[in-house]
Amino acid sequence: MTGHRMETDLLVIGAGSGGLSVAAGAAQMGARVVLLERGLMGGDCLNFGCVPSKALIAAADRAHAPVGADMFGVILPPARIDWAGLRAHIRDSIARIEPMDSQERFEGLGVTVLRHSGRFLSPDEVQAGPHVIRARRIVLATGSKPLIPPLPGLETVPYLTNETLWDLDRLPEHLLILGGGPIGLEMAQAFRRLGSRVTVVEAKRALAREDGEMAAVVLDALRGDGVTLLEGQAVTEVSAQDDGVALRLADGRQVAGSHLLVATGRRPALEGLDLDRAGIETGPQGIRTDARLRSTNRRVYAVGDVAGQGQFTHLAGYHAGIVLRAVLFGLPARVRPDIVPRATYTRPELAQVGLTEAQARLRYGTALEVIREPLHHNDRAIAGRQTTGLLKLMVHRGRPVGVSIAGAQAGELIGLWALALSARLKIGQVAGMVAPYPTLTELNKRAAGTYFAPRLFQSRVVKSATRLVQRMLP
């Protein structure tokens, strides 16, 4: 089928975070933009990921409020869960954000929005329904899908993914979660705090990507909440039971529950694009790109999950900025993976930017300095009884090269260090910051100050100079 032919400056395939950012930026700069989206505007983050999951976590926080309230001299009654009301809260959260991602808004910006999938016909032509679109530049922002492992019996049982979890008509009695990554653990703690029994099965180490010491802070908290964590346990078989699902483990044990959530990772969504017709190469992580996010077809760029560099909404937005500079102005902008933070929204949270301690030691050896700053020295954390956790700062030649934070509001605290790495700030510039008191932000300033403490307070030269100046002052 050929049909209606269209010419455009920029064709964006996928209306998730990255695609919408590219389309909006290009259209507002005066480029002709066509945007393809066969599914929901806003993509995975708005409809199935970040927004509904954080809405659920917020509800779980309220449900958990009576636990430990007596430490503040407050006695609260146990929480009662209105599942229909909780689902309404999740839907409302999505609905309040939807207008910013809507077709109407983008058409108002001058974007031509077509609700079709796209497939390449040639290096610069894409078929979209009855349309054939020829574009000077093309951006692939098709995102990712849940990765379903090839486990014997899994296809015979009902299971949930992050895309279907929000359709539950009742709170699970016992939720089994396959996978101990960020998604699995966030949902594990949230459902446990809402009243479900929860068992997480992880074939390797939970939060394996993170610093082991920092991950332990989070895992201990989940166990304290009553989540059962089975690490180093592969699942060999899945089977149905009258009242739910059972998992057979490699050690012979069987774990049974009422519901199963598969959270074993995500895969790039590349089906049906006919990339080979456009000369676009792919790998296990997605489309092969260079540091400018160009594919092996120089007309085509990739952003977000499909670019194979990580699966974060804010990363997709960062990619969009890189691509816009290239396709609109021909600027040689390059991706800097070291400045992209990540966060796991458990309680306590876990956040990272730059190198972990192990990565930094491997790169810098004995020239690396590691500063550890526990939350139990922070006055705001003490007042709020949130002293579990620490900040770990990796420094090389006076500059931060990585920061790990496990503790309350770690996702907020990491922002300063993302700026420090992005702007290549020195530790002294962070130490010179004035933070309001009392705040958790003081943890960042204190860590920077700790770096200078031995240089100032244990230096004989500094002490001698101080005594000399004191004698000379009137």
UniProtKB/TrEMBL annotation:
Its cofactor is FAD. Residues 9-318 form the FAD/NAD(P)-binding domain. One of its GO terms (molecular function) is oxidoreductase activity, acting on a sulfur group of donors, NAD(P) as acceptor. Keywords: Disulfide bond, FAD, Flavoprotein, NAD, NADP, Nucleotide-binding, Oxidoreductase, Pyruvate, Redox-active center. Binds 1 FAD per subunit. Disulfide bonds join 45-50. Residues 340-446 form the Pyridine nucleotide-disulphide oxidoreductase dimerisation domain. InterPro entries: FAD/NAD-bd_sf, FAD/NAD-binding_dom, FAD/NAD-linked_Rdtase_dimer_sf, Pyr_nuc-diS_OxRdtase, Pyr_nucl-diS_OxRdtase_dimer, Pyr_OxRdtase_I_AS. FAD binds at residues 54, 118, 142-144. Pfam families: Pyr_redox_2, Pyr_redox_dim. NAD(+) binds at residues 179-186, 202, 265, 305. The keyword Flavoprotein applies. It comes from the Bacteria. Belongs to the class-I pyridine nucleotide-disulfide oxidoreductase family. This is Pyruvate/2-oxoglutarate dehydrogenase complex, dihydrolipoamide dehydrogenase (E3) component. It comes from Salipiger marinus.
